[in-house]
Amino acid sequence: MQISATPTHCPYCALQCGMNLTPAPDGGVRVAERADFPVNRGALCGKGRTAPALLSSRVRLTSPLVRSQGRLTPASWEEALDRIAGALARARGEHGADACAVFGGGGLTNEKAYALGKFARVVLGTSQIDYNGRFCMSSAAAAGNAAFGLDRGLPFPLEDIPRTGCVILVGSNPAETMPPALRYFTELRDNGGTLIVVDPRRTRTAELADLHLAPRPGTDLALALGLLHLVVAEARTDEAYIRERTTGWQEARAAAMAHWPEYVERITGVPVPRLREAVRLFCAPESAMVLTARGPEQQAKGTDTVGAWINLCLATGRAGRPLSGYGCLTGQGNGQGGREHGQKADQLPGYRKLTDPAARRHVAEVWGVDPDGLPGPGRSAYELLDALGSDIRTLLLMGSNPVVSAPRAAHVEERLRSLDFLAVCDVVLSETAALADVVLPVTQWAEETGTTTNLEGRVVLRRRALTPPDGVRSDLEVLHDLAARLGVEKGFPTDPEEVFEELRRASAGGPADYSGITYRRLAEENGVFWPCPAPADSAPAPESGSGSGSEPGFEVHPGTPRLFLDRFATEDGRARFVPVTHRPSAEEPDEEYPVLLTTGRVVAQYQSGAQTRRVEELNAAAPGPFVELHPRLAARLGAAEGDPVAVVSRRGRAVAPARITAGIRPDTVFMPFHWPGEGRANTLTNPALDPTSRMPEFKVCAVRLERVREE
Ligand code: SF4
């Protein structure tokens, strides 16, 4: 135990709020304010404030568990690791390398994400690796890459938001998901800027807006096209910018002009005068931003939907200009870094493409392997989960709880049960861990050092403040121990800084270049924005050693808080319009399923709730799911506040108490997705996939409601 305060970061969302950990009288730690970290300036939400509770919780796992006669029972680490290594070797020997799969998480540190990707490709030789971040930001990433040649959640720091003229916040509710971020939007309004919120629900964030547009779920694409149509019709385009900094305008313009405002009103339910008002507010100031989150992104047309909002930014000359542009508010703690370092099915470290021969050569050299031996891209997250028990026989899962968080969750649960062998690393017995053949108890955020990359692309250092309890090991130790058992003795260090040094070399020269970032810089500078290449004469060589990054005598790269100001990351330096058109959701309401379901989050819970449901204070604040519905819908159903309501989709049925509010569209119901069991919202959701990003359609499906009569 250290005696002074340890500056570190919250284990939960993508804001990665800074906090200090100080010793507590019970031998643990408590959270204290850390005002020097600019993102949250000391503010924390309830999740961050209570994060230490799980460190000493009695529900925490401190011994490996192995399944014996159908029950999970405590076992030694040696036995547990032997069983996992044996199962992986058996699956590989009997069915080939791709019979082994690896599933990661957007909460894993950069070091773990990197090591997990390397473990899958080098030790197992499998192409079957993806992570739950696919369910978070993949549509925005695909659209950003298509338009700008590079995806970084926000291409500018949060501090730019209060200084812009107008923000359109699409399908994002920071009041619930990341409350300390709300101040950026209140300051925007205090400074005279305007806030437009697009959300089918009148959320606490929408309450703050100058204009709230409430489209039918699944129609954000049409809404963006309608706005672009009006921008053109009202001659509000920035022709010089379009000419000098973009390509593809004519095709995108033609697509938008086919979406007349009246047609868009019919699709979205947003009246034409409100569309006009949005255009006026967005175009009037010199600078403006569009920020998206899961609302438009978690759709089977999520990539095109985000593309349509990017087109609006490009047509009005907003992207790549000071205080302007498009950005995505990533959700998970390391959703950004998690996708940059190799646990995504199609990525190598440094955000390199797995299909790029030069990228394969570079990373293979760092790893000391033959590039031709590296597997190619594997299945996306849902497709991987769907293949469990068929050609995938054994799964190693780290930092994820798909029994609650995956779409069509009952089916995913069944696929997990059908595996020959499931190994889970977690801190508690999550609903997914409860199905495992072996569960490994791992260290928590405050007990280990590592880096994450927040939603701004700011790499930050989490520091160890506490000695882990006996019986747990870090994920890095697990990968080291498994690799050794599978015949790879070297290349999986257990020291996070050593892993980071290798990550620097692997990322050098890639789009997400971390080669100029060191632990020392992160500690001294309160985070560094990527790309941050090492100076040419001090660049870390691929094969060994480390570049100086911050050694004296070299000019240190300052990092890149703002991207695209001079040029975009495309070959010709211009942003690309992508022509997109409206299309219906994969499921539209019909006679049998006449209502739309959309899902989301509440402030006291995080993701699948595996951690936050086990924190007393958070559980008391948000003890269970609910079905939010409009009074007219409730009256038709004959349901009063608190009555149990069954929501039925083509995939299953969930029951939760009614929460009646006029702040939701009468054709839509909302359920938060943090809980398992009878009220599991993801029992209902549709796994229809976006053709580009492979994002499932979490945000819209057709359901019917049934009143549940209590006995
Ligand atoms: Fe943690 Fe996010 Fe809450 Fe900040 S907003 S304290 S990072 S959960």
Automatic annotation (TrEMBL):
Keywords tagged on the record: 4Fe-4S, Iron, Iron-sulfur, Metal-binding
Q: Which residues form the 4Fe-4S Mo/W bis-MGD-type domain?
A: 3-59
Pfam families reported for this sequence: Molybdop_Fe4S4 (PF04879), Molybdopterin (PF00384), Molydop_binding (PF01568)
Q: Write out the biased-composition intervals (Low complexity).
A: 535-553
Q: What would you give as a GO molecular function for this chain, any one? A: 4 iron, 4 sulfur cluster binding
Transmembrane regions:
none
Output the superkingdom of the source species.
Bacteria
SUPFAM superfamilies linked: ADC-like (SSF50692), Formate dehydrogenase/DMSO reductase, domains 1-3 (SSF53706)
A biological process from GO: respiratory electron transport chain
**InterPro entries documented for this protein:** Asp_de-COase-like_dom_sf (IPR009010), MoPterin_dinucl-bd_dom (IPR006657), Mopterin_OxRdtase (IPR006656), Mopterin_OxRdtase_4Fe-4S_dom (IPR006963), Prok_molybdopt-oxidoreductase (IPR050123)
Question: Positions of the region Disordered?
Answer: 534-559
Q: What is this protein called?
A: Molybdopterin oxidoreductase family protein
Cross-referenced SMART domains, in alphabetical order?
Molybdop_Fe4S4
Please report the organism this UniProt entry assigns to the protein. Streptomyces mexicanus
- What are the record's GO terms for cellular component? membrane
